[in-house]
């Protein structure tokens, strides 16, 4: 598949395909192969219904039903496998700044890997831009992606050896606490306990190692909590240097696919008075990170 580089060896824009029509199996295979080289892949000028986005993403694996969609009550979007990455309420009104769901979602502005707090985390994210706000002084709602393979490669060999066996506890309540949010629905912790994940992962196709970090990463198992958090902070600062980061400036119709196993990402601020509507589908992995050697 033809791809034009957006960030050397990390992000690329794919040659145009109309993904509203189900791609042939060889096209799906080409996209999967491209993602091993380019873990962030951009498709422009896509105008997909939620059903089309769900059906396309499902060609790559079983789809996740996210934390918000799993809660009872009315949703803005009808399909539970489609995540509502917007600032809109159930009646398509812009949420006020004090809205609980909006405050929870601000955790996505921290560097993170989606759903790493789940025992079996996710693989591919598919994010589709439907409506975008105008430019603002604080940012235009870009999404930044960090290459965790290049970040791992840039560590000193002794550091790579030292961190290879480490296991990290990931916890969504820890990530939200970092921005001062703790107003979760009753009993939600029972549904989302913390989960251990390897700090170093390996792509079994390419054999390439990468860091597996996230704002959800609370502490290193077997270490004093303070020491573990300091190391995780140092590794996150290292992995998010500008040389490892691709910043995606959204256009309506963009579909960005990324591999959560070897990237981190974060959203950037935007005009909170105007609608911003993106829709996401996410594929689930088939096993725990602990089942695979780094």
Number of helices in the DSSP assignment: 9
Helix content, binned percent:
10-25%
- Taken in chain order, the helices and strands follow as EEHEHHEHEEHHEHHEEEEHEEEE
> How is the CATH topology named?
Double-stranded beta-helix
Classified in CATH, the superfamily is: Clavaminate synthase-like
For the CA atoms, what is the radius of gyration? 18 Å
Overall morphology: globular
CATH class membership: Alpha Beta
Strand tally: 15
Instruction: Provide the domain count.
Output: 1
Unreliable residue runs: none
Which strand order do you get reading across the main beta sheet? 1-2-3-13-5-15-4
Walk me through what this model shows:
It is a single chain. The chain has one domain (about 5-290): Clavaminate synthase-like (Double-stranded beta-helix), CATH 3.60.130.10. The strands form 4 sheets. The protein has a 7-stranded mixed sheet, covered by helices on one side. Strands 12-6-14 form a 3-stranded antiparallel sheet. Strands 8-7-11 form a 3-stranded antiparallel sheet. The chain has helices at about 25-35, 50-55, 65-70, 100-105, 150-155, 155-165, 170-175, 190, 225-240; strands spanning about 5, 10-15, 40-45, 85, 120-130, 145, 165-170, 195-200, 200, 210, 215-220, 245-250, 255-260, 265, 275-285. The longest helix has 15 residues, at about 225-240. The relative contact order is 0.24. It is α+β, with helices and mostly antiparallel strands. Strand 1 (about 5) and strand 2 form a beta hairpin. The protein is globular and about 50 Å long. The protein is built from 9 helices and 15 strands.
């Amino acid at each position: 598949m033809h791809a034009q580089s957006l960030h050397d060896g990390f992000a690329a824009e794919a040659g145009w395909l109309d993904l509203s029509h189900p791609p042939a199996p060889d096209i799906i295979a080409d996209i999967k192969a491209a993602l091993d080289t380019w873990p962030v892949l951009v498709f422009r000028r896509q105008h997909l219904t939620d059903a089309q986005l769900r059906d396309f993403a499902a060609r790559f694996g079983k789809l996740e039903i996210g934390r918000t969609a799993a809660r009872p009550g009315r949703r803005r979007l009808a399909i539970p496998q489609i995540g509502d990455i917007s600032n809109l309420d159930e009646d398509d009104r812009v949420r006020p700044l004090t809205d609980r769901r909006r405050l929870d979602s601000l955790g996505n502005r921290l560097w993170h890997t989606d759903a790493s707090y789940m025992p079996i985390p996710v693989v591919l994210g598919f994010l589709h831009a439907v409506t975008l706000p105008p430019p603002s002084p604080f940012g235009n709602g870009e999404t930044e992606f960090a290459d965790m393979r290049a970040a791992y490669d840039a560590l000193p060999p002794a550091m790579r050896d030292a961190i290879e066996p480490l296991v990290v506890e990931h916890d969504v309540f820890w990530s939200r606490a970092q921005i001062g949010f703790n107003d979760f629905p009753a009993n939600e912790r029972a549904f989302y306990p913390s989960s251990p994940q390897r700090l170093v992962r390996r792509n079994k196709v390419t054999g390439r190692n990468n860091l597996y970090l996230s704002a959800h990463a609370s502490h290193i198992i077997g270490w004093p909590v303070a020491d573990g958090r300091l190391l995780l902070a140092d590794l996150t600062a290292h992995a998010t240097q500008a040389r490892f980061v691709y910043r995606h400036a959204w256009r309506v119709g963009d579909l960005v696919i990324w591999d959560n196993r070897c990237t981190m990402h974060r959203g950037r601020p935007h005009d909170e008075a105007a609608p911003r509507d993106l829709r996401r589908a996410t594929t689930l992995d088939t096993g725990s990170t602990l089942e695979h050697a780094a």
